[in-house]
Amino acid sequence: xxxxxxxxxxxxxxxxxxxxxxxxxxxxxxxxxxxxxxxxxxxxxxxxxxxxxxxxxxxxxxxxxxxxxxxxxxxxxxxxxxxxxxxxxxxxxxxxxxxxxxxxxxxxxxxxxxxxxxxxxxxxxxxxxxxxxxxxxxxxxxxxxxxxxxxxxxxxxxxxxxxxxxxxxxxxxxxxxxxxxxxxxxxxxxxxxxxxxxxxxxxxxxxxxxxxxxxxxxxxxxxxxxxxxxxxxxxxxxxxxxxxxxxxxxxxxxxxxxxxxxxxxxxxxxxxxxxxxxxxxxxxxxxxxxxxxxxxxxxxxxxxxxxxxxxxxxxxxxxxxxxxxxxxxxxxxxxxxxxxxxx
Length: 343
Description:
The chain is mainly β. It is about 0% helix and about 45% strand. The protein contains 1 helix and 31 strands. It has one helix spanning about 330-335, and strands at about 1-5, 20, 30-35, 40-45, 50-55, 60-65, 70-75, 85-90, 90-95, 105-110, 115-120, 125-130, 135, 145-150, 155-160, 165-170, 170-175, 185-190, 195-200, 205-210, 215-220, 230-235, 235-240, 240, 245-250, 255-260, 265-270, 275-280, 290, 300-305, 320-325. The chain has a 4-stranded antiparallel beta sheet, with no helix packed on it. The longest helix is centred in the C-terminal third of the chain and has 4 residues, at about 330-335. It starts with a strand and ends in a 10-residue tail after the last helix. The mean pLDDT is about 95.
């Protein structure tokens, strides 16, 4: 087994998806759609946080942008779509008001912030950092409402209220019930043998996915009585080459999900019937992040180097960064019954 190199395909857009104009000038770290409209935000290692208006016609129009001092690792929208949270290597989070274009510091850690999420039901921002803490912020106060010590650095995080799941270094997975956020509801070692790369909560908050750097996904249920339904499967592999599962997103209506990987592919899956719904053609560079819009009619993803093979594979003079928008066909995202005779 080897951790694979990138395919020889020369095309960053083999699926003929819509290209977003004026993408960031360096690696793309996160993509987030507004909860109220088809506005897309991307964050980048360049420090850029950019916003586009994705129109019904398919036209994509650059809307606004800011540039922070350090690489930006994460982004999230507030509940009403009026502001964006973004931050990373400056150890803080800025709240960017899109109407006024004003920025306000709303969170601070002792090391880079890897992930952030806004929890509308609590009117709070939660941030996960490499300083081995999770912090909850009431935006009216400069100090965190609660600081949760973690066993290691935050590598992955996702929230579907009342479920919050954090993946840390050393393969620890921590599950929180946000009815009681000061207490760890459950802590396990990942069932996957390699480093956690991504997590994604089920839309009904009964479980979560774990993606690893070794082309494998675990489907986990929170309730102890449902542990027999847990399983793992391989993906983002090519012969003996294995690739990281960088991003996983659930479809907001059909509750199927998409995985995106360092192999440059994104694939649609149905966990309930345990089958792949559609394998898309591979781009010629990794997909570091992806996200559905609020109704699942658009899947946005980046094609951009993810540093999965270190500096040796990065050539700044030829590196390209793209953001693409895919309109999923119903056959790609609607679950279907398991075919008879298949195990």
